[in-house]
Amino acid sequence: MSASQARRLSVNVERFDLAAPFVISRGGRCVADVVSATLEEGLFRGRGECAPYGRFGESVAGVVAAIEGLRGAMEAGVERAALQSLLPVGAARNALDCALWDLDAKRLGLRAYEMAGLHRMAPVVTAFTISLGPPQAMAAQAALHADKPLLKLKLGGVGDEARLAAVRAAAPRCDLIVDANEAWRPDDLPRLFAACEAAGVLLIEQPLPEGRDAALIQRPRTIPVCADESIHDRAGLSALRDRYDLINIKLDKTGGLTEALLLADEAQRLGFGLFLGCMVGTSLAMAPALLLAPRCRFVDLDGPLLLARDRSPRLVYDDCVIQPPGPDVWG
What we know:
Radius of gyration: 20 Å
Strand content: 15-25%
CATH architecture of the largest domain: Alpha-Beta Barrel
Shape: globular
Structural class: alpha/beta
């Protein structure tokens, strides 16, 4: 790298208000705090965004410190392959990895999807999330969005049967998936699986806490079960084979697009279905994940739809249909 093309790293913390409170079994919030990394090299610029998540021991300050700790290496020219061993899986590596993908695409005059081996990108249907709340409140939200093709319901254990019945009555034609965010207990499974079946649910995501999900082993079920908090990268796959049917791939968990693509390869080799998810963030975080969408049975990249305002430039959402990103957005 010549002195005239020295690479420069900048890190920014940004706060985006949510359009409505976002509530799951672990609590709620009204803002999304994200960290973005920008790499500039000559005339080229690459960007990546991450959302630090307390459930995984992350904080905004900790993620910024981790990125800043690699400033020297990043500005010296570290590339994607080397980055994987310099930071652990998680949000900080995701921001840097996606920034490198974007920078490489700009430098090479290619689209990121071409670099990932795709011939083209097509529009993608995303789920729309209904936050956890009393049955009547969730039903009211579902009624407002009853024209959407796929709703994702946040559940919390006690009272979930009533929530499921209320939402199904309010949105009789929507496909439904549910996410308990580890809130169920083994004794809950028979009645809550039955309630999901009665409501026509297509997928149950992370019903039991990570590491305490042995009750799922060889459990007869008619609805597939997806791992979320229980899976981060390839190292965790083998332990899940007798418990889950699908895995939820999120770039903030895998530590970026590089590992996410490898995780998808290995998961499919082992027979897992794929679910594509996200933290609550802006279009800059969703765009890299879209490269995985053609391989996934379900896509849940509705983060920007939950914000009061997205960043600009941004992805185009035609209701719940995401148009492929232009290079001004990412990649």
